Amino acid sequence: MTSRPDLADALNEVLGVEPGAEDYLAGLTIGEVGVCYEALLALIDREDRKSAGQYFTPDDAARFMAEQSADFDEGVWLDPCCGVGNLSWHLASVQGAPGAFVRDCLVLIDTDEIALRTAVAIISADWADIGDQEAVRSLSARSKRRDFLSSTKLPAHDYVIVNPPYARTDMRDGFETAPARDLFAYFLEKVAKSSKGFISVTPASYLAAPKFQSLRNVVDSHFNGGRLYAFDNVPDTLFRGYKFGSNNTSKTNFVRAAITVCAPTLTAWQVTPIIRWTSATRGLMFRECSGLLAPRRKGPHGEWAKISPGMERIWDDLVASDETIADLVVNRETSWSLDVGLTPRYYISATRRSLDRGSKATLYFGNEADRDRAALTLNSSIPYLWWRALDGGVTLPRRVLMSTPVPVVRSPQWVLDALWESERDNLVVKINAGRENENVKHSPMLVEALNNLTIPGGHDLRLLYASSMFPLPIY
């Protein structure tokens, strides 16, 4: 209020307190204010913050989301769990007339009265036009303390910008996504059904996890197109900061996140691969990640595949394959088997030797020829590409492993000999959770030879394996 004496009366009405002698928020960004508020709430009620499933949105990610509003026509925007106003602050900042936007086109909702009042005050103080106290009062009047998921009618709005809560919950009647039992799914379903378009933070898992298939169906049925940006959590992570209130021994927030943009003007679906970047290229990533969007492809179980631009032909050829790993395996122990590690990071391999590791799948085959065909495929780049497209999380789900396509190839004996020799010579051991886990890491030359057999027609897999996709050329 000391910085906006022209709005002092209206801001006093919103906050209900007189300004203190010292401005403790001076010099802080809206994101830093949010961090301070989350930390204070965690100190007051640790368990409530953990169960609420709320994660803070950094300033640069919030700005990136706000910039997506350029594809939306004019209308009223709703922020259904606004907190102290980080997303809406940035949304106002990118408007051609921020003052008019705050006065007429923004609605805030939160269950936390203090956060809601804070958001109204900060957004108004930073963006209302000079002397426009009515803008402060108007925004305050439209903003409501309520549960977004309650059955009461929502305030009038056209679009939504949101970072919804992420937490397991009970099944709720009236939601198509009830089987997911996830607050995020309920939020996004209601957003999709109540608005003309939205910009939302989402877990990256919703693009592929079976439990979110009903949510993908809801979004698909209400919008003709959208852009989905999927982000990895290494080497850098989208949600920097701390998980205030978490009992996890790792305090850093390592959520794999995505950002979904559904605007009425979009008539086609596009999805990025899982984006990797370094802390040094974070700004570049936000500026150039739209260049990684590729036309959406779907997986065998309805997944929204995350593939790099330029890999569409490879993907389409794989999907057209007549056989998968599931077609080759048998449900009994035989003399022909392969061990596959189920916690990949930068590669997937399959070995005849038994691996001493905590997480693996042992696949059995009815004959040597089927085992060898599977080995050629599972030691090429195909399973890694398939996994990154259809999951890409911590583990390799069995549904993804078993659905991996097996191209028809003729393999010279020297390739198989080189493969068996490599698994003998290239055993690696990694300690995870205090346990030594064996795996085999083949040389790039051998993997390339396998790719030449299993991925005909040439291939450029630099983006697939890149630890950072920037500043590699964007196709």
Structure description:
This protein is of the alpha/beta class. It folds into 2 domains: 301 residues, Rossmann fold (3-Layer(aba) Sandwich), CATH 3.40.50.150; 147 residues, no CATH class. It is built from 19 helices and 16 strands. Helix 2 packs across helix 3 and helix 9 packs parallel to helix 10. The radius of gyration is 25 Å and the shape is elongated. About 2% of the residues have low confidence.
Q: Features of this protein?
A:
single chain; 475 residues; alpha/beta; Rossmann fold; nine-stranded mixed beta sheet; three-stranded antiparallel beta sheet; 16 strands; 36% helix; elongated
List the helices and strands and how they pair.
Layout: H1 8-15, H2 30-44, H3 46-52, H4 59-67, E1 77-79, H5 86-93, H6 98-104, E2 106-110, H7 113-127, H8 133-142, E3 144-145, E4 159-162, H9 183-194, E5 197-203, H10 213-222, E6 226-231, E7 257-262, E8 269-275, H11 282-288, E9 294-295, E10 297-298, E11 304-305, H12 312-319, H13 325-328, E12 336-341, E13 350-351, E14 360-365, H14 368-378, H15 382-390, H16 398-402, H17 413-425, E15 427-432, E16 435-440, H18 444-454, H19 462-465
Parallel strand pairs: 1-2, 1-4, 2-3, 4-5, 6-8
Antiparallel strand pairs: 5-7, 6-7, 8-9, 10-11, 12-13, 12-14, 15-16
